[in-house]
């Protein structure tokens, strides 16, 4: 399987940026995508109590020069750097982030169907590193499902409407 240039950029940026984002901040995710005619490099950071505008400005001042110093320049095009909070639907990319989300309302997408569905949204009851247990509503019935971690394609916090 060929590694996409975007995956390479995300890995490289993560390697450079991760050591710069120190307590109380936490690097949540790095995304590089085309929006309209522009490329946007999004660096999602969080801290207990949430991120303020001053935080993103301070972090941008630390991150931007570090990105400019990567040799050779990995970016094929001009890009905009966006340092922001992950927001309410924060991605849960690691086992640690899932453990921290126990008790919260989450959305999980699976690689293959489980009980005739690939997407589950509900309360994360427990996660032991191997399996997620989620309470969810199937139409009007409350159900519980156990999902093996290796079936999880994507997980994120969700907003209950």
From TrEMBL:
Subcellular location per the Swiss-Prot or TrEMBL entry: Cytoplasm
Key word Cytoplasm present: yes
Signal peptide: none
UniProt domain Ribosome maturation factor RimP N-terminal: residue ranges: 17-89
Limits of the Ribosome maturation factor RimP C-terminal domain: 92-160
InterPro entries referenced in this protein's UniProt entry, alphabetically: Ribosome_maturation_RimP, RimP_C, RimP_C_sf, RimP_N, RimP_N_sf
Keywords for the protein's UniProt record, in alphabetical order: Cytoplasm, Ribosome biogenesis
Pfam families for this protein: DUF150_C (PF17384), RimP_N (PF02576)
Domain of life where this protein originates: Bacteria
PANTHER family: RIBOSOME MATURATION FACTOR RIMP (PTHR33867:SF1)
NCBIfam families referenced in this protein's UniProt entry, alphabetically: PRK00092.1-2 (NF000928)
Task of the protein: Required for maturation of 30S ribosomal subunits.
Family (UniProt): Belongs to the RimP family.
Identification of the protein by name: Ribosome maturation factor RimP
Species this protein is from: Streptococcus caprae
């Amino acid at each position: 399987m060929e590694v996409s240039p975007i995956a390479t950029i995300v890995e490289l940026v993560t390697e450079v940026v991760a050591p710069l984002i120190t307590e109380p901040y936490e690097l949540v995710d790095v995304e590089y995508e085309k929006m309209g005619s522009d490329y946007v490099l999004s660096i999602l950071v969080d801290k207990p109590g949430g991120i303020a505008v001053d935080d993103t400005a301070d972090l941008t001042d630390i991150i931007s020069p570090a990105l400019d110093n990567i040799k050779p320049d990995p970016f094929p095009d001009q890009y905009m750097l966006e340092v922001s909070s992950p927001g309410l639907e924060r991605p849960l990319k690691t086992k640690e982030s899932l453990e921290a989300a126990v008790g919260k309302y989450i959305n999980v997408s699976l690689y293959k169907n489980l009980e005739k569905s690939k997407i589950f949204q509900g309360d994360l009851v427990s996660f032991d590193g191997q399996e997620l247990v989620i309470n969810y509503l199937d139409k009007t019935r409350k159900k519980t499902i156990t999902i093996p971690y290796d079936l999880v394609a994507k997980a994120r916090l969700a907003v209950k409407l």
